[in-house]
Design goal:
One of its GO terms (molecular function) is phosphate ion binding. This is Phosphate-binding protein. It is found in: Periplasm; Secreted. By secondary structure, the protein is of the alpha/beta class. It contains nine helices and 13 strands. The chain has two domains: 125 residues, D-Maltodextrin-Binding Protein, domain 2 (3-Layer(aba) Sandwich), CATH 3.40.190; 133 residues, D-Maltodextrin-Binding Protein, domain 2 (3-Layer(aba) Sandwich). Helices cover 37% and strands 25% of the residues. The strands form three sheets. Strands 1, 2, 3, 4, 6, 9, 10, 11 and 13 form a nine-stranded mixed β-sheet that branches. Strands 5-12 form a two-stranded parallel ribbon. Strand 7 and strand 8 form a beta hairpin. The longest helix is centred in the first third of the chain and has 19 residues.
């Protein structure tokens, strides 16, 4: 009996480190992934755990959390009815604005929400109609399934109903970029382009427009004055392993939320 107990103890000592070292898998929104990768890197350094972050898009992240193919899912849009089961919990880890961005050479600095919507519907086609040069507007959008696109369409009312189904109202001639980085590259290299990206991804390569006279800033998003904004959501099933729960606890801690703020997003606690 002593030998059996000794063997079980040895097995326990061998397997315990493996359990503790279980890799936390996170997949979904490319926008959320931007800050999630930084959170994962810092968590790994402090906790000695491994976190793998994959940018697959919000819709894919929601499915992954629901199906259990990923421990955690990421979404940068609100979750629709029927997308999740009752056992899946939504956790808002940050808030982010969506910036309408133009080339640095573009003299237009401010548009109304209605003007932006009309540009994306193809109803305003020339920059001269909104105070710019007499040049055609090059509309740039995100790919289907993108949480940023879904949130942008909802907020800007860029959807229409066809045969009882909601479809995008964005002009079909719009250029499509996969991810914030691609949108930035397209707009930064075309003086007549307009695109939309996560506010946390804005840099000196382009200009983030004021909307209705309100600049896209953390303070204006927090106050509700800048209205093109959305939540960053992490999805976790009730049966997710303890390692995933511990990582989420870190994300929601003061240290994790400080990283959120340092990366240009709005902390939620």
């Amino acid at each position: 009996m002593k030998k059996v107990i000794g063997l079980l103890t040895a097995v326990g000592l061998i397997t315990a480190p493996l359990a503790n070292a279980e890799t936390v898998t996170v997949s979904g929104s490319t926008s959320v992934a931007h800050v999630m990768e930084v959170l994962a890197e810092n968590y790994q350094a402090s906790a000695g755990a491994t976190v793998e972050v994959q940018s697959t898009g919000s819709s894919a992240g929601i499915r992954a959390a629901k199906d259990g193919t990923s421990m955690l899912g990421m979404s940068s849009r609100n979750i629709k009815d029927g997308e999740l089961t009752d056992s899946t919990k939504e956790i808002v880890i940050a808030r982010d604005g969506i910036a309408a961005a133009v080339n640095k050479a573009n003299p237009v600095q401010d548009l109304t929400q209605e003007q932006i919507s009309k540009i994306y519907r193809g109803e305003i086609k020339n920059w001269s109609e909104v105070g710019g040069e007499a040049r055609p507007i090059v509309v740039v959008t995100r790919e289907n399934g993108s949480g940023t696109r879904g949130a942008f369409e909802d907020i800007m009312k860029l959807q229409r109903t066809v045969n009882g189904h909601k479809v995008s109202a964005i002009v079909p001639t719009a250029q499509v970029g996969n991810g914030n980085g691609m949108i930035k590259t397209i707009v930064a290299n075309n003086p007549y382009a307009i695109g939309y990206i996560s506010l946390g991804s804005v840099d000196d390569s382009l200009t983030a427009l004021s909307v209705n006279g309100v600049k896209p800033s953390d303070a204006n998003i927090a106050s509700g004055d800048y209205q093109i904004a959305r939540p960053f959501i992490v999805l976790k099933n009730n049966d997710a392993p303890q390692s995933a729960t511990k990582f989420i606890d870190y994300v929601m801690s003061n240290e994790g939320q400080s990283i959120v703020a340092n990366e240009g997003y709005i902390r939620v606690q």
